[in-house]
Amino acid sequence: MALAHSLGFPRIGRDRELKKALEAYWKGELDEAGLRAVGRQLRADHWQLQQDAGIELLPVGDFAWYDQVLSHSLMFGVVPERFRTAEGRVTLDTLFAMARGVSGACCGNAGTQAQEMTKWFDSNYHYLVPEFSRDQQFRLSWEQLFEEVAEARALGHAVKPVLIGPLTYLWLGKVRGAAAETEGFDKLELLERLLPVYGEVLGRLAALGVEWVQIDEPILGLDLPAEWKNAFERAYNLLQQPLPKKLLTTYFAGLEDNLGLAANLPVDGLHIDLVRAPEQYPTILDRLPAYKVLSLGVVNGRNVWRCDLEQALDVLRHAHERLGARLWVAPSCSLLHSPVDLEREDQLDDELQGWLAFAVQKCAEVATLARALNQPDAPEVQAARAASRAVQQARARSPRIHNPHVQQRLAAVTPADSRRASPFAARIAQQRARLDLPAFPTTTIGSFPQTAAIRLARQAYRLGKLSETDYVEAMQAEIRHALSVQEKLGLDVLVHGEAERNDMVEYFAEQLDGYAFTRFGWVQSYGSRCVKPAVIVGDLSRPQAMTVAWSRYAQSLTDKPMKGMLTGPVTMLMWSFPREDVSREVQARQLALAIRDEVADLEAAGIGIVQIDEAAFREGLPLRRAAWQHYLDWAVDAFRLCSSGVADATQIHTHMCYSEFNDVIEAIAAMDADVITIETSRSQMELLEAFEAFEYPNEIGPGVYDIHSPRVPSVAEMVALIEKAAERIPAERLWVNPDCGLKTRGWPETLAALGNMVAAARQLRDKA
Ligand code: GLN
Ligand code: ZN
């Protein structure tokens, strides 16, 4: 009998109950007992939902108060010194302090800085980076996992606790401490000290009568250094014991060169992600020892589409013949990355509703697939398969998906469409003549503070409480305000301020054909924060201009150059749920053509500078190096396709809010934006090194102040930073701007910081 199991369930709740409870607790409106009760209820509900859907082994340990990596840090006693209290007790408040920091009271207390947060592999989930010291000791310090196992047991469930494996846990962490202390220290040296705690955890679980544990080692999908590969064997040899049995799980990428290693570790089963890396099957069958369970992840845990059951069954049936009861059926990865329950949606049309599946529905799909192997003739199985076939057929033919105009236009694109008319040197000469900007031109990244008034107006308009005319007038008033501020400050290239935008992707998605929106499709991003990505349903196109009226209005108020503001194709794609029936590349190109039209319309409206933000450009990089070039090729081309339709004298900017460019600098240069603005202030301009070494030819605006904090840097500080930048990039190619948009800031610090920024640029001009 093939078994249906799941790797993890979203913890946030179908109505984001956990988010609400956490935020109430942080505000002091809910006490700890209240918060714990909400958590307990969510866990009980989620186990029940999964069980009702037909999942036979339920995950435990997938619930976390903030983040599952952080839970492991607590479990292993990896609590940095600064979060330790005098009594040394680790509490829920220790956990939240590590996650969120503690703000300083008054009087010289600097507060306690939170742990660093970063992206979980190539997903949009963020985890808290474990902080190790060189002399790190590990000690079982947090009972949550055992308590939750007992809790699930008490509810009568068959459970499979979920652990992050020791190698992945170490890989995700960072050694902190004084340079002298950490230099030359390899965190892999901590493994020997860490393993006994894993042994202890497994022993405790065995004592609780747990038969199987799931051990996640997603780093097996990465390019691993030889020492790490060797460490896998060592570690799992040491962790050998008869019970609990171990299912080693890998996801987000194929095992490739790690396949033999993963297949042969002394564990009892292996899970592979066949959604991301279908080519792993059937190769895996030849490599897997005959005693092991093989779990096949065939239901996509990272997207919202209903599974094509027939396609999944083709593989599963073959595997079942070979493996029998040793075959397990699963989602590709934890369902943490899926919205919770499609049943919650009350405003989707029937057609679209029929195409989608969220976590609850995905569990049912997994169960149906297992059942289809075990009892192929069961009427429910027959009905589910017939429904799946009908959906796939209807979708394949639906005009909602296929837009012949878009497809024809895409087919007619030629390489020339992705090339500006002239090389940069010729373009910049024309742009300089047209724009007549001073040295060290000053600008901002686009957004100004999104005040409560702006949000209220937008909300009222959405709810129909504010008429279109009144809404437009309210937004125009914001534009007038943003412009008068910028003129008074003396900025050189102005922006309209983006008051009308809720979000840099959703705003455009709502105006494109081919997108759909859910009401409750929330996915945890970090802690209590959730995102609700738009869904790319079909071929994408732009029925009409999206931003031109606002930019034209703004330009009419000033003689200074106005910068139009768009989101680029790669970022649009990366922050949406994509289609699965066409490649990412095709979707990016469709988006690029839509944006290209907008760029052309802005140009025609007299806007001489257009910025196309690609905040998510780097995020799109595949996990394996060997796949990078293919991605970079199409991603760069998508940007060029959207930006190359303009005259030489029209200046194209792009913006990326990070600064690791070393390994992608060639691609960044190939994008051929006339100006790129990047985040650099916190790194003291050191991150311009990549641009210097590459002899990056175009203009650059390295951020001169960090917008993530309300701190107002002094004029002298910014002068010093720009001078540092000028050591690496010729001064005539430097722009002066903040690190990113200002939407999360308040007006007072924005005015003060921009005032100092303009003064800094002026000082430098005077010096020159
Ligand atoms: N133009 C956007 C803004 O200023 C850019 C945001 C971003 O890069 N994340 O808000
Ligand atoms: Zn940014």
Number of helices: 28
What about the largest sheet?
Answer: 8 strands, parallel
Q: Mean pLDDT, as a whole number?
A: 96
Portion in helices: 40-55%
What does this structure look like?
By secondary structure, the protein is α/β, with parallel strands linked by helices. It is built from 28 helices and 21 strands. The strands form six sheets. The chain has an eight-stranded parallel beta sheet. A five-stranded parallel beta sheet has the order 17-18-19-20-21. Zinc ion binds at residues 445, 615, 655, 657, 740-741. It comes from Geopseudomonas sagittaria. L-methionine binds at residues 445-447, 498, 613. Keywords: Amino-acid biosynthesis, Metal-binding, Methionine biosynthesis, Methyltransferase, Repeat, Transferase, Zinc. Residues 440-762 form the Cobalamin-independent methionine synthase MetE C-terminal/archaeal domain.
